[in-house]
Amino acid sequence: MKKSVLVYSIISILSLAACSRDDSSEKLSCNTEQIRNQIQDTLHTGIDNNARQFAQTDRRQFVDADKVIGAGGELNIALSEGKLDKDGNGNPVCSSELKVTVPTNIWQQIQTNAPLLFGKTDFIARLNKQLQGNEVVLHDNEFTKPIQYSPVTINGNAASNAASATSAATNFDLAGIQTLGTVLGNALLPYGIKDIVVINGHTYKRADAIELINNPNAKVTPVGQQSQSAQMASAILNGHAAAIINDNQANDNATGRNSENAARQGEINASQLQLARDNNRNANNVINTLWRNLDDTVRKTLQHEEQKWIANKTSQCQARGAKASSATYAEFLRLECDTQLTNERIKYLNGYTLR
């Protein structure tokens, strides 16, 4: 009988010791990748949705949503090391600080562009007003917010740890983070303003439009009002012959006259023909690159005009070469014509880009 009692006593002691060891092996952690990822995803979702909704409803069509979303991907989102504490009911809770930093170059561009969207109001004051009641502090280009979330229970069971981490990642100030995501989306909107915008029926380069908003009396020219060079470039669209005077020839009259005299006589040597080919290839490389880099909206607007210009240029330059007395002379005249008209068209298209 005594032996039996002794055995049970030993078993009980061992069991209690084991339980004690199991309990002591469980720890609470405030630093998990799941909570960081969940907060980051929530912010990016808010930015993306805000940008797309604004672009769809903005009748002025100033903003490129994809550009805003791209800027959102450049944000530095950091969560400080969590500290274990207790809430008002004595339950364990983690406290940390969320910091969202906008890259300096993006932040500067945002403030430069902001008047186009929000007028001459105080952009920072506007953001701070949206942040009221959300415990967010804006200082320079950094947004900071204190957050609390549930700790993760760490023990020897991997499945249990994963379940605890998943639960903690869904238990945080979701509404506050969603609001912050919306405000960040609003803050990034000016960065997405397109290179070309339309104000009061006139098309302006972005920099000129900003200047006009800041100073209504500014002397800025709408893109649609062509300079003399641009008018020359577009003359061919109306069937008028543009003056075929190369810029380099204008700066070097003697060389230009010699080249012209040689061309009139059909005395084109291999070196002159190769130079004409090289100049033409370079001009076409420049205009093709310029066309590809235009804003999508501008390119679509100019598509029909560009096709008409190419067809008329080809027709005019072929007609010019047909007057030649030899095949070599004909190619030379066609290339010179094509190069000159292409260079003038480059000047015209440059009016639709920001330099």
From TrEMBL:
Entry-linked Gene3D superfamilies: 1.20.1270.180
Domain of life of the source: Bacteria
InterPro entries on file: LprI-like_N
Pfam families according to UniProt: LprI (PF07007)
Domain Lysozyme inhibitor LprI-like N-terminal, first and last residues per copy: 262-349
Official protein name in the record: Lysozyme inhibitor LprI-like N-terminal domain-containing protein
Species for this entry: Snodgrassella alvi
